[in-house]
Specification:
heterodimer, A: mainly beta, seven-stranded mixed sheet, 0% helix, B: mainly beta, four-stranded antiparallel sheet
Amino acid sequence: GAVVSQHPSRVICKSGTSVKIECRSLDFQATTMFWYRQFPKQSLMLMATSNEGSKATYEQGVEKDKFLINHASLTLSTLTVTSAHPEDSSFYICSAKPPTGLGEKLFFGSGTQLSVL
Amino acid sequence: DAKTTQPNSMESNEEEPVHLPCNHSTISGTDYIHWYRQLPSQGPEYVIHGLTSNVNNRMASLAIAEDRKSSTLILHRATLRDAAVYYCILRGGGADGLTFGKGTHLIIQP
């Protein structure tokens, strides 16, 4: 089946530094990818929709200057958490949408656990 | 997005069938019913989806009510590896991401 690879799986960083998370669709071209954030014991919250070759669309309350999204190719989207602070510690998950079909299933990465010290 | 309602948690025994209910009384005619599950510390995994007719795949079955206002995910023979949070999600035909509710935490007893 289709695979979405997310890297790194876990990262620990110091407060004030930036962290980049990569999301790759390995066997299909994804014009649209999604980024989610999940706090402990809570559900996934959509942060932004990433479209290849254009600016990402952010959900209300998500700071676009803090969470930089780049979708430069049909198989790669990146999320950069800039000037990370402890409150940014969370589980970040990407998802990729196959190019065809209505109501199609989405494929998810395995997630990145970010811990900001 | 139309809202879904699921029980917070359910418990079942290993090797027994599990029926996970979902209510979606405000579903629109073009909404697909999707089920995903999330194992601990992992990203969600697709389970099954359908529109009007019941659906079967190697993981599960999806029974959709005739009025489409509810559906049931059926795991025919639960194993310990099926312990996860199961999300019932409505999705239209557009390019939007999925809106996750709280899901049902399925506990499997050995």
